[in-house]
Structure formats: structure tokens, C-alpha cells
Specification:
3 domains; about 230 residues; alpha+beta
């Protein structure tokens, strides 16, 4: 799933004339998929053109003295405006070509350290997004637990095998959560999961607590107290 950090990184790289293939290679090494990257390039308005693919216009040296002399001799006296236009066009080519050569001679590629730092920041932002998704999935299960309780003769028994729990558990595990735990009694429940990339766990229960970070997963029907 793309985010603003990914879009900002791609815009920065494109502004520095880094090729699309190089950008894709760097980002794929950090775990981004082709689908994410295609969506991101479309989102930043990438057209597929950069300085490396724009052909260098012909330089003025391609116009020989003989060709100029020939043009002057064959142009009708009433076509002076056309001659002026041709002269301006040749001047434009000379100036544009010179500016392009100067740009290439002064362009400094992004250092490897800066690229590594940018990719690390993107990876950290993506990990925070996945952790937020895991927490959101467990928090949503609190509402489903109460609905299950109301429609199951005021009992949480059987909630751990309900379809709603299975669906949200899969969503949390797809985001990187592991070691999911569900404990129920007739009147109480506790749900826990290990968060992505660290040793913390996230737990919700029937006490009304909206959810908390814990050092261990629940062994009973109440979230552990750190």
C-alpha cells in the first residue's frame, strides 16, 4: 500500500534525473511490490520521460556555411521573415544544447548514504503503517465480540471460532502480526497478537480497555499488566 513517504521519495529521485529502473530496483530491494510501484509512479504523474531519454537537439555545427549561403541565395526577397525565423531557430538550438551540456557537467548523483537513509525512512514508515493496521484489526474485534455476546445468549463462548474473528485475524496477520491468542469464558474474553518487527504485543479484552501494549500475550481472559 503506497504512502506519502514513498511518493515523496520517487518525486525526489525523478527531480534528480534518476532513472525509473534504478528507482524501482532500490525500492524493490526494500520489499515494495511491482503493483505498489506502478501505482506510485502513476500517482506522481510520471510520464516515462526524463533528461536521459530526451534526444539532444542537433547542434549548430550541423549547418555548414555552404548550406546557409544556399538558403540566402534561394530565399525570395519577400521572405525575409522566414530567414529571420530560421536564424532564431538555429540560435535557440545552440543555446538549448549548450544549457543541456552544462547541466550534465554539473549534475551530481545522489550519494549512496542519502539513498540508504531515504530507503530506511520509507521502510520505517511502512512498518508503522502495518503496526497501526494490526492494532486497528484487534480494536475492531471488540465491537464484534459485544455483538456476538448479545446474539449468543449473553455469552462469549464460541467467539474464538466465529467467522468475524477469523476475517479480522487474517487481516492482522497479513499486516505482519503473529502468535494470535484468543481466550474466552462465558462472560469474559481477551485477544492478543505479537506486533511486527519488535517484541511488543497488543491486547484487548472485555474489561472496557480500548487496547494496550503488553510485554506478554494474554494467558487468561484479561490483558496482562506490564
Amino acid at each position: 500500500m503506497i504512502n506519502n513517504q514513498l511518493l515523496d521519495y520517487i518525486k525526489q529521485q525523478l527531480s534528480l534525473n534518476i532513472g525509473k529502473e534504478v528507482i524501482i530496483s532500490n525500492l524493490k530491494s526494500q520489499g515494495w511490490t511491482d503493483a505498489d510501484l506502478n501505482e506510485a509512479f502513476i500517482a506522481v504523474g510520471f510520464t516515462g520521460l526524463n533528461h536521459s531519454t530526451i534526444p539532444i537537439p542537433p547542434m549548430a555545427s550541423a549547418v555548414t556555411p555552404h548550406s546557409v549561403e544556399f538558403q540566402v541565395k534561394t530565399i525570395h526577397p519577400k521572405s525575409k521573415k522566414m530567414l529571420l525565423f530560421i536564424s532564431i531557430f538555429i540560435l535557440f538550438i545552440m543555446v538549448g544544447g549548450g544549457a543541456y551540456v552544462y547541466y550534465l557537467s554539473t549534475w551530481v548523483p545522489l550519494s549512496k548514504t542519502k539513498v540508504d537513509n531515504a530507503l530506511r525512512e520509507i521502510d520505517e514508515a511502512r512498518q508503522k503503517g502495518h503496526i497501526a493496521m494490526i492494532k486497528s484489526s484487534l480494536t475492531s474485534l471488540r465491537a464484534y465480540a459485544e455483538l456476538f455476546f448479545d446474539t449468543n445468549n449473553d455469552s462469549y463462548l464460541g467467539f474464538c471460532t466465529s467467522q468475524e474473528l477469523k476475517d479480522l485475524r487474517k487481516e492482522a496477520e497479513d499486516a505482519g502480526g503473529t502468535d494470535f491468542v484468543c481466550k474466552t469464558t462465558d462472560k469474559e474474553y481477551a485477544l492478543g497478537i505479537k506486533l511486527l518487527g519488535n517484541s511488543d504485543n497488543y491486547c484487548v479484552d472485555s474489561t472496557g480497555d480500548p487496547g494496550r501494549i503488553t510485554t506478554t500475550l494474554p494467558s487468561g481472559v484479561v490483558c496482562p499488566v506490564n
